[in-house]
Amino acid sequence: MKLSTKVTELTNIIAPAVAACDVALWGIEFAPQGNRSLLRIYIEALPEEQAQNKQVTIENCAAVNHQVSGILEVHDPISGEFILEVSSPGFDRAFFSDEQMHAYVGQTVSLRLIQAIGEGDKKRRKATGTLNSIDATSLKLTATDGEQFEIALSNIDKANLIYEDA
């Protein structure tokens, strides 16, 4: 889940504006698309508000959109036109850093890998299962078919939480 140089640059510019709106920055997606790019910002309630079961509201999204628009006008880090979207990460949230996954140990995650894992005809570049543990270099996953994997964090291209209605 290595962030591109552009996403890192945008994060450094945008993070203070998001914090000024009293919400937490979960992550940023940037997709250059010809003459018009897409910048998607995910925000969530601050930890102390999450403890009180407070969620991100449409008003939070609008405030961040307004604040970030102003910052981007000043810094102009995106060439050409762009679409700015602000939302919560949702139930099936993407993970933007390894650290974000720690809070979801015991839950189901979906991984897209850089290099395949497994043996023979059971090799796979995608794995879905229970996140058993995570440390500084790897995670342990029990796949939905029961197979156990230890996966290097450096081998993860994309990771998402899989929402399961309790």
Question: What does this entry show, briefly?
Answer:
The chain has helices at residues 5-19, 47-50, 58-75, 98-101; strands at 24-31, 36-44, 81-87, 94-95, 108-117, 124-134, 138-143, 148-152, 156-161. Helices cover 25% and strands 39% of the residues.
Corresponding CATH superfamily of the largest domain: RimP-like superfamily, N-terminal
What structural category do the secondary elements indicate?
alpha+beta
Poorly predicted ranges (pLDDT <50, ≥5 residues)?
Answer: none
Q: Could you give a short account of the major beta sheet?
A: 6 strands, antiparallel
Integer count of domains: 2
Please write the CATH class name of the largest domain.
Alpha Beta
What is the CATH topology classification name of the largest domain? GMP Synthetase, Chain A, domain 3
Question: What is the end-to-end distance?
Answer: 28 Å
Q: Give the overall shape, derived from the CA principal axes.
A: globular
How many separate helices?
Answer: 4
Protein name: Ribosome maturation factor RimP
GO cellular component, one term: cytosol
Organism: Psychrobacter cryohalolentis (strain ATCC BAA-1226 / DSM 17306 / VKM B-2378 / K5)
Main location: cytoplasm
What does this structure look like?
The structure is a single chain. With 166 residues, this protein is of the alpha+beta class. It folds into 2 domains: 5-90, RimP-like superfamily, N-terminal (GMP Synthetase, Chain A, domain 3, 2-Layer Sandwich); 95-161, SH3 type barrels (Roll). 25% of the residues lie in helices and 39% in strands. It has 4 helices and 9 strands, in the order H-E-E-H-H-E-E-H-E-E-E-E-E. The chain has helices spanning 5-19, 47-50, 58-75, 98-101, and strands at 24-31, 36-44, 81-87, 94-95, 108-117, 124-134, 138-143, 148-152, 156-161. The strands form 2 sheets. The chain has a 6-stranded antiparallel sheet with strand order 4-9-5-6-7-8. A 3-stranded mixed sheet has the order 1-2-3. Strand 5 (108-117) and strand 6 (124-134) form a beta hairpin. The chain is globular. The relative contact order is 0.15.
